[in-house]
UniProtKB/TrEMBL annotation, chains A, B:
SUPFAM superfamilies: FAD/NAD(P)-binding domain, FAD/NAD-linked reductases, dimerisation (C-terminal) domain. Its cofactor is FAD. Gene3D superfamilies: FAD/NAD(P)-binding domain (3.50.50.60). Keywords: FAD, Flavoprotein, Oxidoreductase, Redox-active center. This is FAD-dependent oxidoreductase. PANTHER family: NAD(P)H SULFUR OXIDOREDUCTASE (COA-DEPENDENT) (PTHR43429:SF1), PYRIDINE NUCLEOTIDE-DISULFIDE OXIDOREDUCTASE DOMAIN-CONTAINING (PTHR43429). Residues 333-434 form the Pyridine nucleotide-disulphide oxidoreductase dimerisation domain. Transmembrane segments: none annotated. It comes from Streptosporangium amethystogenes subsp. fukuiense. Belongs to the class-III pyridine nucleotide-disulfide oxidoreductase family.
Length: 457, 457
């Protein structure tokens, strides 16, 4: 008998799951329906800032697989502008509102919940005014592009995380005057304060006015359109506002159905992406995952995790065996010529997780100092004082700096000590690194630092 | 009583050992003499091709620490143009010929042998002619620069390894017509043949005439200067010849003294860089080291290993504790816009080491496909059929491709399976990688390949 798989959410996690399941089970064995409430499926949400900034000019290039490919080649019944409004576990069916607004029930044997994340949109006076944009979906990105055509002059970006900074750069590229507001004392609060301060300096170099420690209290409007952003101390004129306030797992539908949601508000799954409810899987930004260093659940909205988790769910539904082992919190971003990356825990996170973190910033170059195009970069390594284990690392530098975080992410993954890292056989040639790669220098400095502390007892 | 440390060889390994020992023991505790037969110490030999090619214009920029720094700041008695001609283990002294040609004895309590490598220079008719250059030492590089001033027109590079290719590029940059000759059927025989073929294509794109499977049989000369390179089938006109034939450990001095030399002709040491002879250490290109995948001794001449091994010897002589765990055979190079990297074992090496290697080439891009500046790259992963363990990896691509080898080197180091690699938390943002980093895609493809083979039994 043909089994029925319903996938809620047609982006990275959902369509990866659908594709992998199809790869292993033909249409006679598994009927697949994918429900996407937006107008686009299977696109790179991470590409939106570059669409807005103009580096990417073709909206379609962000779509990794067109709907026809799913429908015609993979025999996946992908329905756009179609919203799942309820999951009924007793009936084993999802209530669906289609493009025309008609309601119906879609029965399932297997269900993948891939409902993504919802943006943190402040419930503040004036938050509904025109000109205030989120940038979570491709539809959001297209709306923002249209807003730019109306020629706004002054933009305020609220939130100094990855998306906020990428959007600030995009708007600078479009010739707007840009201010950035963040309630925290530093941009990029996923970094230690000393590394975050380097980012604040870089933003100011780019002509962005950076207002830190300022919580947004409301928006002023005129004729239904935003005119200013108000904080405790400031009124920042704006005819365009971009909200980059981070996200939380979109788990309301699952929770309403009685599917277990964790303290992060992400849906709970095991390593095979199974929820505790038989036949119900979850993947992507709507789930919580396991941090391999803090040993705590975390919810991290990132396309790369969503793709992997979707693949794992799909392989398992397809009859294979795959698992998602967890994360170490790796992330990377680019703001004009500056590259920023991190992995593992920050100093504060490490202390909260019960370690005794010790860290130091080290400066080096991306290539041999004498080789043309060598750029400056700084690495901070955070090690556990007692064991010497690398707990986390952060990089701020110019071209060629940030991707070195991958080596450090794998070192963190394997619980290497900083002394062990100094022995790693990393690649060296003058166009690629100094003879001691910055990763190795940072490990040496960290090891020496720990040794000095050890001698002091 | 003051101990006496003598270091033979004033480059990466020797001067790292001397500096680290000094860092831990003052001049009253440890007297340090370093003997260097050449005119330069502590320089980047790997930078010579870029000096010859003109990317680096200042010879001095290749020197990482000037002799005065060692003498005045570190109190290390560095003697240039001073050759160690014999080690007498009974007398615990080194026979030394100084700049004036005078012989004397230098007694030691601790000895570091860091005599480097000797180039493979063919014993062929005409090999002594003018215009035939090695490129091993900075003095060689300076001699070649002078030869270029005489305006040669046609160059033949003998040997298609890293140095040969880097020199071929350098000579193309200088406007010479360049031919490359290699006895093997592919350039870069540290890669699998299918990856090496990509390099041969790239070299031809650069206008280099590539002659493979041609063993050099001799050199023609006129008036003491080379005029052509003869192979079995070809006579290649040349007024400049560069030999890039690889190197072997320069262990003759040690061997003559009765210090143990292994089958690679490298000096044998333990992980702390001690030879079996009490108080005698060795480090750098003159030693053999342990390959962590093949579990066999290997001799790999590379500045990064030399620096690490020298550091380890110096820390241990200084009373600390450090060890050099071995290598996984990582290397990287750049030939014009092409980047080449490898780690672990090739398919042939893996088979020789008793594995059942399975490999496939995968193509991807260095950034998200839609992001400006995305470049093509190919990765070949070699996995063990039985266990799925990653045995080696090779990369050929354009800007931003090759440094990804570091992630793979650490995966090889930790004996990860290709399926485990698919779960790694590597950094993703469109300016840095597709949502599946090429490393992860290659691991997925390799895992799928192994699964298909497994099904076939």
């Amino acid at each position: 008998m043909t089994e029925r798989l319903v996938v809620i959410g047609g982006d990275a996690a959902g369509m990866s799951a659908a594709s992998q399941a199809r790869d292993r089970r033909g249409p006679d064995d598994l009927r697949i329906v994918a429900l996407e409430k937006g107008a686009h499926a299977s696109y790179s949400a991470c590409g939106i800032p570059y669409l807005v900034g103009g580096e990417v000019t073709d909206v379609e290039s962000l779509v990794s697989r067109r709907p026809e490919v799913f429908r015609d080649t993979l025999d996946i019944d992908l329905r756009l502008r179609t919203e799942a409004v309820e999951i009924d576990l007793d009936r084993r069916a999802v209530a669906v509102r289609d493009e025309e607004g008609d309601l119906g029930w879609e029965p399932f044997d297997q269900l993948v919940i891939a409902t993504g994340a919802v943006p943190g949109r402040p419930d503040l006076p004036g938050a509904g005014a025109g000109g205030i944009h989120g940038v979570q979906t491709l539809d959001d990105g297209i709306a923002l592009l249209r807003a730019l055509e109306r020629g706004p002059r002054e933009a305020v970006v609220v939130g100094g995380g990855y998306i906020g900074l990428e959007m600030a750069e995009a708007l600078v590229r479009r010739g707007l005057k840009v201010s950035l507001v963040d309630a925290a004392g530093q941009p990029m609060s996923t970094l230690d304060p000393d590394m975050g301060a380097l980012i604040a300096d870089a933003l100011r170099d780019l002509g962005i006015r950076v207002h830190l420690g300022e919580r947004v209290e409301g928006f002023e409007e005129s004729g239904g359109h935003v005119t200013a952003v108000r904080t405790e101390n400031l009124t920042l004129p704006a005819d365009l506002v971009v909200l980059g306030l981070g996200t939380r797992p979109n788990s309301a539908l699952a929770e309403a159905a009685g599917i277990e949601v964790g303290e992060t508000s992400g849906i709970r799954t095991d390593r095979r992406m199974r929820t505790p409810t038989e036949g119900v899987w979850a993947a992507g930004d709507c789930v919580e995952t396991f941090h391999l260093v803090s040993r705590q659940p975390v919810a991290i909205a990132l396309g790369t995790h969503a793709n992997k988790q979707g693949r794992v769910a799909g392989i398992n539904i397809g009859g294979g065996h795959a698992s998602f082992p967890g994360v170490v919190g790796t992330a990377v971003s680019k703001i004009c010529e500056y590259e920023v990356a991190r992995t593992g825990l920050t100093t504060a996170e490490a202390a909260r997780a019960g370690f005794e973190p010790v860290g130091e910033i080290m400066e080096s170059t991306t290539r041999a100092g004498y080789y043309p195009g060598a750029r400056r970069m700084k690495i901070k390594m955070i090690a556990d004082r007692g064991t010497g284990r690398l707990l986390g690392a952060q990089i701020v530098g110019q071209e060629g700096a940030a991707k070195r975080i991958d080596a450090l992410a794998i070192a963190v993954w394997h619980e290497m000590t900083v002394e062990e890292i100094t022995g790693l056989d990393l690649s060296y040639a003058p166009p690629f690194a100094p003879v001691w790669d910055p990763v190795l220098i940072a490990a040496r400095k960290a090891a020496e630092h720990l040794e000095r502390l050890g001698r002091r007892g």
